Records
---
Amino acid sequence: MIDTKELALAREHPRGTERRRLLPYRDALNDVTAYAALAESDRDAIVRWVETRRLIKVEYGIDHDPSNLADPLLPEERLRTHVLAGERAAAGRPEFRDPGGDLIVAVAKLRS
């Protein structure tokens, strides 16, 4: 569950928060195999941030802005697609379909 404090921070400082959360995982965010090789706790940290991004996109309209060349936010949908591809690879379940909605719930279903 993403709490209101975490959402407020992400909404107020999306670029800096994303950089702090995802920079240690740069290689994994560029390679599905590297993502799948991460420890589950590291994958959980990424999943949590991507779900936070989904929420601030839905609730506040904050996402990647292609017209702003200085905007380093990765598109939320691209993050989600990559995370689910990496989770499918880690779980050995290539047939799993994205149910949409809460990414934390979707990943829990995929892992079970």
Note: The chain has a mean pLDDT of 94.
---
Amino acid sequence: MKRFLLLLSLAFISVNLAFGQTAKKKPPVAPAPKAANKAVVVQGTAPKLETKDPSFTGFTGSFVSFGNISGEDRSFTMKVEYKPWFFEASGTANAKYNTPDLGEDVIVVIAYYNALGKTADSTSYQAGLFDLMMYLDDEPVKISNLNFTMTAKAAAGSAVLAQAKTWNFEQGKVFKMPKYDAPIIKAQAAALDKSDIAREEAAAKKREADSIAKEKKRVSDSIAKVEKMKKDSIAKEKKRVSDSIAKVEKMKQDSIAKVEKARKDSIAAYKKYVKDSVEKAEQDKKKAAAAAKKKKKVVEEDEEEDEPPKKKTSSKKKKKAVEEDEEEEPPVKKKTTSKKKKFEVVEDDEDWDEEPPKKKSSKKKK
């Protein structure tokens, strides 16, 4: 709670200071590295001091280790290895009667000049560190015997570190200048904690893992896509061949069916023709028989009509005449067709004037 109130009060102070100093001079804040600076920095070379205006950055007590208390003094060491910070600081802290309370609750603000360098593996680091202030419940702690050392990755910046120590400010002086209160308060409020580094490292690992997983998925999807295209192509070709075979088979079946239908239609047409011919022959035969019968009836009727009437005779004479006729009757001829009869009748008609044909007896007709 105390820390929250401290930060709130510091925020108000920084706002007031900012408005008060706007007309005079823009308050120095941690400037972004200039393009010219970046151009000057060469990979694997020591950094170079570019300006005498200081910048500030804050760290929590999670980076600080305190030693035993000697009176009101207490030794400390602070090691940070998180880009762009690769340094180790050591010294003696004196918080008077609050010295035993020094621990992770402290806030450490580092003052540095912008001197950005790069290691051989292209890791950026700041080498212009020159001062340090420790705060306990917003109260400054007196620091003595302060010493900075660049760690392994940034060892090439040791010369710049020594130069920065006497570049502009004596130790402790920069933190007593009101014009730097705003950036100092801002550095306190945004102090970096080890947990932040752990979270960021975890996030970086996750990003890397996600990137690897994404790349694996991309490769896997690409392979799957190519494999699918291959399978689709094979399936398409198989379907084309299958459809072609089916089409040829259908054409073959249709052709066979067409030939079979034509054969059946031909047989059916021939059967119908034969049946119709037989029926027609039967009908013609019946018509001919009916016509012949009719003609025969007409001839017979004509014969009956043309026969002259006979004189009446007595039964005895009639019987005698019949017997005579029987005796004189020539041998019986075989029966002929109606056409022959017709022909005979016509011949008889030629001799009709000489003698009328004798009427056959009823017995003979039978």
Note: The beta strands are 54-60, 64-70, 73-82, 85-94, 107-118, 124-136, 139-150.
---
Amino acid sequence: MILLSVQGLGALYTVCIFVICVILVFGFRLARIGYRTLGKKLPPEEPPKQKKQEDPVYFLVERKKKRVKPEYSAPRRIDFK
């Protein structure tokens, strides 16, 4: 008894070959990246430098002035024509 037809087997083999190729390509890329990093060494960490005391900076700040309240005149009547 044949479980899959010929076209079904062809599609199954195509999907399997595609998955195997994708795995091989990404595996090769990851292996190449890993091989490149084998010879590299991280630079040694430099000891922290002591920061010299800098002169303080003073900013001149002007105080906020109280806003003058505007004086309004008496309301005028507007006539629409």
Note: The mean pLDDT is 84.
